[in-house]
Design brief:
Layout lengths: L4 H34 L1 E15 L2 E11 L5 E5 L13 E7 L2 E7 L6 H24 L1
Antiparallel strand pairs: 1-2, 1-4, 2-3, 4-5
Helix pairs in contact: 1-2
Amino acid sequence: MRSQLPHAIIAPVFLTLGVLAVAWAVLAFRSQRRFLSKAMRATGVVKSLTAERLEKTTFYFPVITFTTAAGVPVTAQSKTSISSSYPIGKTISVLYDPNDPNSLEIDAWSRWVVVAAATFLAIVFVGIGTAALISSS
């Protein structure tokens, strides 16, 4: 007869992690939707790249110059990191908060990576927890 201890631990741990990942996915999605509901689009130019080194990886945050819809020129660092393949002078589409034009993001699919990662983890954790719960029955 095999021990039920692993299932007794695995199911609640992974179901809890799954619930936390679902909450994270929902909050990340709502944050993106909130930003997109007020964001304005503009075309900017990459002026420089700010490198941030983490152990074995380097993230590059572009400093972008663009003009707001109100005609105000802005130079700001993006909150979105990019690969180093963005050359200085490259034209790039950005989204910015009209109340705070310095708060900008690159208009790209990468804005949704956190939502996708949280959703993936939620599915995996809930799946493992559910499978452990069902197999212990």
